Structure formats: C-alpha cells, structure tokens
Amino acid sequence: MGNGVKFGTILNFPMKINFLTRALTAMLGLALASVPFTAQAQTTTNSASSTTPTTTSAPITSAPTSPAAPAKTKKAKNTNYSGTITAIDATSVTIANTKGTMTLAIDAKTKFKKDKASATIADFAVGDKITGSYIVDATGTKTAASIHKKTPKTTAPATTTAPATTATPAASTNAAPAAQ
Q: Which of 6, 62, 99, 146 has most Cβ atoms within 10 angstroms of its Cβ?
C-alpha cells in the first residue's frame, strides 16, 4: 500500500456511481408515472360487409382521473390610489397625481363614498381630491372598486375689527375772531 492511494477510495467509487444511477432512474420513473398517458384502441371498419359493426374502445389511461373540480378563481387584489379628478362620466374617471394620469372604468360594483357616507357619481366633479382602490382584470383593464371624497373643512373667515378712530371735528376754524 505504498502507492499513496487510500484503500477506501477505490472501493467506494463504483458504489457512488451505482447509487446515483439508481437514484436518477427512480426519479425519472416517478416523473413519467405522474404524467397521465392516454392510449386509444384502433378503430376498424369493414367496407366489404355492411353487417360487421364498427368497433371502438374507450380511452385507456394510466392514471386515474379525478372528477372535474371547479376552477378556483383568484380574487383580484385591490390597489390603492389617490389624486385629483381630471375627467369623470358614467363609465370612467380619470385621476392625475404625482405618478401621472390614470383612467379607471366605473361599473355597477364601484362604491362611492363622500365623508364616509354612501354617495353617487353625481357627488363627484372635476377638481375633487379623491382616494380609493381599483382592480386590474385579466385583460389589464383597471376598474374602480371604490372612490372616496372628503369634503374640505371650511373654516369661518376670521373677522377683524377695524381699529377705533377718533372723531375729528367737522370743521375747524383758523379764522381770526370776529370784531365786536
């Protein structure tokens, strides 16, 4: 054993390859087994005789099929926005903010709020500052889920009183006294 080769190295090398080969084969077998495979029997017809029926067989599948489950629909995620109305009509609202301009569709599900109370589209006008949320559908259309407006608080104008002025005599006389 003077050649500098460790005894365990020579014996373990073929064992490692054998193990890897088996592991890869097992993974490939599982992958193929999980893919459904459909095979159909060949259809035969006999054109010479009309008494021979045509035979077909049902598809053969390698994996059992489960009953069709209803597709789960993803609930669209609401995205918040804020800005100033630049255009509004019965079908859409356009909002401008620091990020740019955005047009949202308005539908029957859009909820309008004014000062936390229910409102209608008639309560909104160009120039109103609004917040709310919208949903993007599969086609990329942005639809307003909600539109909120707070009425700005109006403060009573401060009344200022004018400083009191002293009354000046109506006429001042600088004329000389009359002679007697």
A: 146
Query: Which pLDDT value is given to residue 174?
Result: 57
Regarding beta strands 111-114 and 142-149, do their DSSP bridges make them parallel or antiparallel, or are they unpaired?
parallel
User: Has residue 177 been placed in a domain?
Assistant: no
**Cβ–Cβ contacts within 10 Å for residue 111, how many?**
13
Is 88 part of a structural domain of the chain?
yes
- How many Å apart are CA 178 and CA 59, to the nearest integer? 139
What is the residue range of 98's domain? 79-149
Q: How many domains does the chain have?
A: 1
Which carries the bigger pLDDT value, residue 115 or residue 72?
115
Band of residue 119 on the pLDDT scale cut at 50, 70, 90 = very high
> Tokens for 19?
């193990």
Whether the pTM exceeds 0.85: the reply is no
Q: Is 93 exposed, middle or buried (0-12, 13-18, 19+ CB in 10 A)?
A: buried
